[in-house]
Design brief:
2 domains, five-stranded mixed sheet, binds zinc ion
Length: about 300
């Protein structure tokens, strides 16, 4: 029975002790207050690493040896190095895996450490929750940006949120600056730039009432996600796609399935499925731990 710790980094650090793919004890949150939003952004890397190590020590109940520690980071991660982290810019270039191993030693804990992309952590957590650890699952996380996660881990870049879904020259709302990207259509920040006078919630409300500009946008939103999903099916094969994240409520599943069906016509590729699921910090923490266990060969 593997004993591991899962950590997710976003506006908060969530940490949990995971035994046999289930959380044991409570999830710890740092900072504890809801309104300390932004506190992590201002922390220098060394302080952030020390904080994470203290959280790991606090949940692991005096263990001096763990089978795996997994840390999910919002950004591009390769071989334990954070190559890009737009929401925690101090981490860019950090050799986070080495820093964590040394930081844990200072807390008296020996453990193999895996650094993973947060959307991959969500994918692993959903795979564990839905009993699908033996199959390939992909997940779109709809938040400020659009995350793409997959389980099991496979080497690659997998920046699925930046899949090109339109050739329109005017589609320049993606946070990365690239033209025609999925996140430039569906990202919350991109929607606010496109509709300067309306919140995304109001856009989807107005689409229900038939307001032309909003109806057209709702179609674009669903075609974009269908296009990115279809591209993934054409490249990596059919399988399970989960949709999740704080803005998943904007998705009209029948509309999305209809567009995807129009884009995937080869019969061997039609055995994909798309499902909306709700995930939580618990799912992400379990996913980080499960991914790290796999990487450590548990
Ligand atoms: Zn982009």
């Amino acid at each position: 029975m593997a004993k591991s710790v899962g950590v997710t980094l976003s506006e908060h650090v969530f940490t949990g002790f995971v035994v046999d793919h289930a959380l044991v004890g409570d999830l710890r949150r740092f900072p504890e207050g809801e309104d300390d939003y932004g506190a992590l952004v201002e922390m220098p890397t060394e302080e952030l690493v020390r904080t994470i190590c203290e959280q790991v020590a606090a949940v692991s109940r005096g263990s001096t040896k763990l089978d795996a520690v997994g840390i999910a980071v919002p950004g591009l991660v390769k071989n334990g190095v954070v190559e890009e982290a737009p929401n925690l810019p101090q981490l860019k270039g950090a050799r986070l895996c080495d820093l964590m191993i040394n930081g844990l030693k200072a807390q008296g804990i020996e453990a193999p450490v895996t650094i993973l992309n947060d959307a991959d952590g969500v994918a692993a957590g959903l795979a564990a929750k839905h009993g699908k650890l033996d199959s390939i699952i992909r997940v779109w996380t709809l938040g400020l940006g659009i995350g793409f996660g997959r389980y099991p881990f496979a080497p690659g870049v997998w920046e699925g949120g930046h899949t090109v879904v339109t050739l329109d020259d005017k589609e320049t709302y993606c946070g990365c600056g690239g033209r025609g990207h999925l996140e430039g259509v569906m990202g919350h920040r991109a929607m606010r730039l496109r509709f300067l006078d309306m919140e995304p919630e109001e856009v989807f409300e107005a689409a229900k009432k038939g307001e032309h500009r909003c109806v057209e946008f709702k179609k674009l939103y669903h075609k974009a996600l269908a296009a990115a999903t279809a591209s993934s099916v054409h490249m990596a094969g059919p399988g399970k796609f989960f949709l999740t994240g704080p803005y998943v409520g904007f998705v009209d599943l029948p509309m999305l399935k209809d567009y995807t069906q129009q884009m995937v016509k080869m019969s061997p590729l039609q055995s994909y499925s798309i499902e909306i699921v709700h995930e939580s910090p618990e799912t992400r923490v379990i996913g980080s731990a499960v991914s790290a266990e796999r990487a450590a060969g548990c």
